[in-house]
Amino acid sequence: MAQPVEISIAAASRKVTVPTGLFINNEFVPSVDSNELIQCINPATEEVICSVVAGSVADIDRAVAAARAAYNTTWGKNVGPLERARLLHRLADLMERDRDTLAELESLNNGKPVRVARDFDIGDSIGCLRYYAGWADKITGQTIEVDNKTKLAFTRHDPIGVCGQIIPWNYPINMWAWKVAPALACGCTIVMKPSEITPLTALKLSELIVEAGFPPGVVNTVPSLGSVGGAALAAHPDVDKVAFTGSTVTGRKIMEAAAKSNLKKASPERALLAILEQVSLELGGKSPHIVFASADLEQAANWAALGILYNTGQDCTAGSRLFVQDTVYDKFISILVSKAKEIVVGNGFDEKTSGGPVVSKMQYDKVWSYIESGKQEGAKVILGGQKRAGKGFFVDPTIFTDVRPDMKIVRDEIFGPVLAVAKFSTEEEAVKLANDTSYGLGAGLHSKDADQCMRVSSALEAGTVWVNQYNLLYNNVPFGGKKQSGIGRELGSYALEEYTSVKAVHWNFGEKLDWPF
Ligand SMILES: NC(=O)C1=CN([C@@H]2O[C@H](COP(=O)(O)OP(=O)(O)OC[C@H]3O[C@@H](n4cnc5c(N)ncnc54)[C@H](O)[C@@H]3O)[C@@H](O)[C@H]2O)C=CC1
Ligand code: BAL
């Protein structure tokens, strides 16, 4: 079993062929020692789309060996920056060519609307590949004077090596691009483990890796269960760096695995420093979104609704805790509810649809258990909160008011279209409520008072703060979290630091060493 399957996309009158094997050394191959398969489900219909090979620990070993061989021969320091840039641009061209098919496949496997996948996820991913193609020949070190007459030092930003990249199911193509583009621009090789829930587009993109002309072994793709392939990749002694996006629980496990594998070579005191260079984690969030009385309420309601409903709330930066100033509270809530009602949730192949189902039965059950807990803990449902009849893991926009800070719906990351709204009266109170979380990924505020915007954006404990907008990201602006939302930064020039290792070279052109010293 590693044969491609033909998937019929009836709504678009199209058929698409999808590889189902593990992608190692530019070939789709069966597992070396396992017959396990991963079933891919369409969350809008609950039907099986197809099955793909589930990689084993031995398959991860094989993929890492392929990545190491490529790093030492055809890639790494053996390929120039212009060639790395050319290939990244070529890959971007191919994604552009296949944009519609990729969007349809993404929609089938993940549930997000085709329009959203095509215009946002894939559009941004193409932009990401091109952005880092532009960086490939601009990764420079410094020349440092240490003694004018006899010595100088310089730094080189070497590729960090073989990277294990573990990505989630909420943005399968986009998270692929965020990981692959900077790593390749820096000269790293990759073993990519897509989520077992959404492996199809990573496999389809692997075909484009071959077509673009990347040498074998530069990018390898191993769909596998997290507890099998993900854990093996994180603990692998020949993986130089692990980059992860996903839950905080799994992020902790990855940190532990990387530390243990580093301990094989490093002393315990060095292990922490070693893993800080070698692990980057983009984890969960429970992001606050504050609306002050002076805000443009119509606009703030649009951004607040986008903040929780975009990607059906399955977004690490979802603005899931909304704080509204008491003097405008009633007016704002009525605008917000009317905005949320306008969002079309349903058929992903309809261009008017903005929201799809949540990704899986497990996620559906998790979201509903939070909705039930919100009701039981005494929060008031002012929108949604009722199950739909029929097939598909659909959850309609759900808004709770009268929430307290101790409620589970206020404390935990739900990863669904479920908003908890609370009232505040002073700026100080809003900041205190906003920062009352173990997470620190995103935060938003709306106000027409510029001084207030500056004060509050400075006080909010988050890696990203949006002022008078929410949830928009750009490839040239860094992204990442504080507190339990992660370590390291993706996007922008900052991501290059995650995939390079700085080497200082000390050059002596005149100093004689007196002996004995
Ligand atoms: N920050 C984010 O973007 C994401 C957050 N989540 C949160 O996590 C919750 C659970 O979703 P999951 O799919 O279970 O997330 P997860 O964090 O377990 O999965 C993300 C990736 O990690 C892999 N993984 C799982 N266990 C692993 C391990 N022991 N070692 C290495 N890799 C491992 C998975 O196979 C997947 O590729 C969601 O409800 C949501 O709250 C989920 C996905 C993305
Ligand atoms: N929205 C940025 C990436 C994420 O949700 O995982």
Automatic annotation (TrEMBL):
Q: Where is the Aldehyde dehydrogenase domain?
A: 34-505
Instruction: Please provide an example of a Pfam family that matches this protein in its UniProt record.
Output: Aldedh
Kindly state which keywords UniProt assigns to this record, in alphabetical order.
Oxidoreductase
Q: A single Gene Ontology molecular function, please?
A: aldehyde dehydrogenase [NAD(P)+] activity
What Gene3D superfamilies would the database entry show? Answer: Aldehyde Dehydrogenase, Chain A, domain 1 (3.40.605.10), Aldehyde Dehydrogenase, Chain A, domain 2 (3.40.309.10)
Entry annotation: catalytic residues: E282
Entry similarity comment: Belongs to the aldehyde dehydrogenase family.
The name this protein carries in UniProt is NAD-aldehyde dehydrogenase
This protein's species is Obba rivulosa
